[in-house]
Design a protein that fits this description.
The complex is a heterodimer of chains A (297) and B (297). Helix content of chain A is 75%, strand content 3%. In chain A, helix 1 crosses helix 10 and helix 10 packs across helix 11. The longest helix of chain A is centred in the middle third of the chain and has 28 residues. Chain B is an all-alpha fold and 297 residues long. Chain B has one domain. Chain B is 72% helix and 2% strand. Chain B is built from 11 helices and 2 strands. Chain B has a two-stranded antiparallel sheet. Classes of the chains: A mainly alpha (297), B mainly alpha (297). At the A-B interface, helix 4, helix 10 and helix 12 of A face helix 3, helix 4, helix 9 and helix 11 of B.
């Protein structure tokens, strides 16, 4: 049970990173990205490809970052003159295209079989020690990312981003380069999501296109909206909450004696129901956005 | 060549009713309703369940179409109208949440395996050298008839005039005494029914599983965008373009261009083709091909 809790916490930390990244885009930049999972996939495939071609850990980081910058830039580029809901569909489509390409170009990406046996993170440690080491490094990683995001959004850059979210025309007239702000936002948050993917790939030592299906993006959206859009702590709270609830659904199923389909259905229903409930009755989520020094009601 | 035309028509008829429904809803509600693809799947599933219960297929289809239409209106009144007051992207995420809930219901009620109508199996026959089955022909004729009816309704009746007036300028329509709320509900009802009919026609030709709705989402959306969202008959043209693109991608021999005898794209790229077309259209003509409206950013 203890090992299981460690495992769930590690996953929750990694999901928190992806949620932080989406929150930076949607909560602060107002960018409705429905292709978030592709940015995560940049990280997993950076790790996977570096392993497959025996390039080593460091070059994996470089490849992952390279992918993330390219994909983030591409997302921002197609969004230049689109309305936000159109851009949402465009990112969803682009993420699917990326997944289909990864799935079919087996010579490069391992295809639908994926890349297995990616080297673990701390090969010298054994058993539980390794798990604990991974846990602490993930927690530390999350803390670093959290403070980095706060530093970004508390400063001038964050203010510019918020102005361009609320009043793009005003931001333009104040001399902000809105397109550049959004591009930087996509690339920076892409790097955060890709780093989570990179660690994820080394942690579960398996990379496959099925990890990149668009329903994962919707899960991350649910985390951000339930936790509180526009607040970094909210994203982390939402990610931990959903990840823990999801991990205990199978136990509940066994306890009550429900069929196996129940687990998947309950996940879907919770994502959907949670999104609807929070959007109707608690727009600001569990941890509301802070504006100025006061909480937004 | 005839076979090619038949293939394109068949694929287009998969998409066209759902795309028309999505586009019609957009024209009045002004947000991309992702759940329309799930309305289609619900229609097919309800008809399937009713047919299993011993009801003749035609009656089952009519009941299913009505149920989905009413459900679409109910969802609109209870959820989407309230979310639209916040923003159109909130409503879009809301429709996403609805489609995830629908997936959960399908999973519990139908199970993960694909199902089909129990119809007598007929030999395919040949029309000008192209192979067709009776079910395909039935499905194609129903689809064509539904589109024609919808076009007549839109351009030849009072309700259609009200619909077009409300879509073009809601305030002005209200000022001339049109009950815009009733018009909106009528459009949502009709669109829901069209989508459900689309789902049933799709299932007539083959089988359906719980993933079908989400798989349809992007091709249908591409078709609706190509036709200019909010221009329902444009969406019909869009569906043909998408079907053409998908069939061409998998049907053309790229061999000569690369100095090889045979080189075909993998079939999985058919859908990727339509997504790329969506992204390209959005970049090139953000408001679709058949719209000459002033661009909104």
């Amino acid at each position: 049970m203890f090992d299981f809790l460690i495992h769930v916490t590690i996953l929750a930390c990694l999901y928190s990173l992806v949620a932080l990244s989406l929150n930076l885009q949607s909560g602060f930049g107002g960018l409705m990205n429905f292709g978030q999972i592709a940015l995560f996939g940049c990280g997993t495939y950076g790790a996977g490809i570096a392993y497959k071609y025996d390039l080593g850990f460091a070059s994996g980081i470089v490849i992952a970052a390279g992918f993330a910058v390219c994909v983030g830039w591409a997302f921002a580029a197609i969004g230049r003159n689109l309305q936000e809901d159109y851009w949402g569909m465009a990112t969803l489509a682009l993420a699917e295209v990326i997944r289909i390409i990864v799935n079919n170009e087996g010579w490069f990406t391992g295809g639908a079989q994926g890349i297995s046996a990616v080297s673990p993170l701390f090969p010298s440690l054994a058993g539980r020690m390794q798990q604990v080491a991974i846990l602490w490094s993930c927690v530390a990683f999350l803390a670093v990312a959290y403070f980095l995001c706060r530093w970004l959004t508390d400063g001038r850059y964050g203010l510019g981003l918020k102005v361009s979210r609320e009043e793009p025309q005003l931001a333009l007239s104040l001399g902000y380069d809105v397109a550049a702000l959004r591009r930087e936002c996509m690339i920076l948050s892409g790097l955060v999501a890709a780093s989570a993917g990179f660690v994820f790939a080394h942690y579960i030592s398996f990379v496959a296109p099925e990890q990149l299906v668009s329903s994962e993006t919707f899960l991350i959206w649910a985390m951000v909206i339930i936790g509180g859009i526009g607040n970094h702590r909210g994203a982390i709270v939402g990610a931990f909450l959903l990840q823990f609830i999801f991990s205990f659904i199978p136990f509940f199923k066994d306890l009550v004696g429900l069929p196996t389909e129940f687990v998947a259905a309950a996940r879907l229903a919770m994502i959907g129901g949670g999104l609807i409930a929070f959007m109707l009755w608690r727009q600001s989520g569990l941890v509301p956005e802070r504006i100025g020094g006061t909480k937004l009601a | 060549m005839v076979q090619f035309v038949v293939d394109v028509l068949m694929r287009a008829s998969d998409l066209v009713l759902i795309a028309v429904g999505m586009s019609a809803i957009y024209s009045l509600m002004k947000f991309p309703n992702i759940a329309v693809a799930q309305y289609a799947a619900s229609g097919a599933f309800i008809a399937l369940v009713l047919q299993k219960g011993g009801i003749p297929i035609v009656v089952a289809a009519i009941i299913a179409v009505l149920c989905v239409g009413i459900a679409a209106v109910a969802l609109n009144e209870l959820l989407f109208n309230r979310m639209l007051k916040i923003s159109s992207s909130t409503a879009m995420i809301g429709s996403l949440a609805v489609s995830m809930l629908a997936s959960a219901v399908f999973l519990l009620a139908i199970g993960p395996n694909p199902t089909r109508f129990s119809l007598p199996i007929t030999r395919p026959f040949r029309v000008l050298g192209a192979r067709m089955t009776e079910n395909q022909l039935t499905s194609l004729s129903i689809t064509t008839a539904a589109i024609l009816c919808f076009a007549l309704l839109l351009f030849r009746t009072d309700l259609g005039r009200c619909m077009r007036a409300t879509a073009t300028n809601r305030l002005l329509a209200e000022a001339t005494g049109i009950d815009t709320r009733r018009t909106r509900n009528a459009v949502v009802l009709i669109s829901g029914m069209l989508a459900a009919l689309g789902g049933i026609c799709l299932t007539l030709k083959g089988e359906i599983n719980i993933q079908t709705g989400l798989d349809l989402l992007l091709p249908v959306f591409s078709a609706a965008i190509l036709g200019g969202l909010g221009n329902p008959l444009g969406a019909a043209a869009g569906a043909i373009v998408i079907a053409l693109a998908e069939t061409l991608i998998t049907g053309i021999n790229f061999g000569p261009a690369f100095g090889r005898e045979l080189l075909f794209m993998p079939a999985a790229y058919a859908t990727a083709g339509s997504f790329v077309l969506l992204v390209v259209t959005l970049i090139w003509r953000p408001r679709g091909l058949f719209v000459s409206e002033v661009k909104r950013v």
